[in-house]
Design a protein that fits this description.
Oligomer: single chain
Order of helices and strands: EEHHHEEEEEHEHEEHEHEEEHHE
Number of strands: 15
Distance between the termini: 37 Å
Structural class: alpha+beta
């Protein structure tokens, strides 16, 4: 088995890798936020040196990964962009004797996570947790993963629900010194449930198109559908089916998803895909000059900055 220190996990928008001391400034930038740590039960970081010590003493634990952006993303708190390569959160597992759930067995573990506040609401942590779950069940051979949250931490609760964890109970605790919670809730997901979730049949998603792109897909010329990377489209997987409907008419054309690529904006998408695929693959007629601003007729720029965009390859 590959040593976890040499492990890198990649998702649509993220890279997960072991923490490095060089991440200390990024860590302090986001972990010093008082709205991040206390709901999860840990205090805000007080300095870059404090963050560096936590990397050495806590985040260097086995199977603990820094959450790294693959692309620039909008900072919704401070403005501007958070550049690709920035460490913006953490996800990792704790084995028997190290988590907060008291009944973990030898073939089980507890998972924990957090993400920087400027990136809340973009489903990045479920994406990271899902990747680590895959490692736990497919590579490490674990049989069950536990996860907990303190009362009031609904963001953490929603992550667990999205990733298939089932409620397993709670324990009463003395008032927590950081968040005042008196109850900690626990949920779990088994290896069998993980396998069931991954073996589900392809899903079908409906999308509406105007006349020109619909006919181009129908004729096989348009091979990439461009959409906002919102919560609905992030559910797409390779092998899923898209049923396109011609706008205002009961005419349908069904395709299969063969690839999914994320880009921070349409400029990056056009730059990457047009040289290799040609503008026609994106839906342009032969005489049409392609320009990324064309897509702003469908999606406001602020929504693009917040969510990014998907190139959905179809056949």
């Amino acid at each position: 088995m590959t040593n976890w220190k040499d492990t890198t996990l990649q998702t649509l928008r993220l890279i997960l890798r072991p923490w490095r001391e060089s991440d200390a400034e990024d860590l302090y930038r986001f972990a010093s936020d008082p709205q991040v740590g206390p709901p999860a039960g840990w205090p805000p970081h007080t300095s870059v040196d404090n963050s560096r010590e936590i990397i050495r003493g806590v985040l260097s634990a086995e199977e603990t990964y820094a959450v790294i952006l693959r692309y620039d993303m909008e900072d919704t708190v401070n403005g501007g962009m958070i550049p690709a390569g920035t460490a913006v959160g953490s996800v990792g597992i704790m084995f028997k004797g190290h988590g907060s759930y008291p009944h973990i067995r030898e073939n089980e573990a507890e998972i924990g996570y957090w993400i920087a506040r400027p990136l809340w609401g973009r489903e990045l942590i479920p994406e990271a947790v899902w990747a680590v779950m895959g490692r736990c069940f497919d590579v490490l051979g674990l049989e069950r993963l536990w996860c907990g949250f303190y009362e009031g931490n609904q963001k953490s609760r929603r992550v667990q629900q999205k990733c298939g964890f089932w409620s397993e109970g709670y324990q009463r605790i003395p008032p927590h010194p950081l968040n005042g919670a008196t109850v900690e809730y626990f949920s779990a997901v088994t290896r069998d449930r993980w396998l069931d979730m991954n073996e589900k049949p392809p899903a079908t998603m409906d999308m509406t198109l105007r006349e020109a792109p619909f006919r181009a897909i129908q004729a096989g010329r348009k091979r990439v559908e461009m959409r906002l990377c919102d919560e609905k489209r992030r559910m797409l997987r390779i092998g899923d089916v898209i049923r396109f409907r011609l706008e205002d008419q009961p005419i349908y054309h069904t395709v299969t998803v063969t690839g999914i690529r994320y880009f921070p904006d349409f400029e990056a998408l056009y730059t990457a895909l047009i040289p290799s695929l040609g503008a026609e693959a994106l839906g342009y007629a032969a005489e049409e000059p392609p320009h990324p601003s064309d897509m702003l007729a469908y999606y406001p720029r602020d929504m693009v900055r917040r969510h990014g965009v998907l190139a959905i390859e179809i056949n």
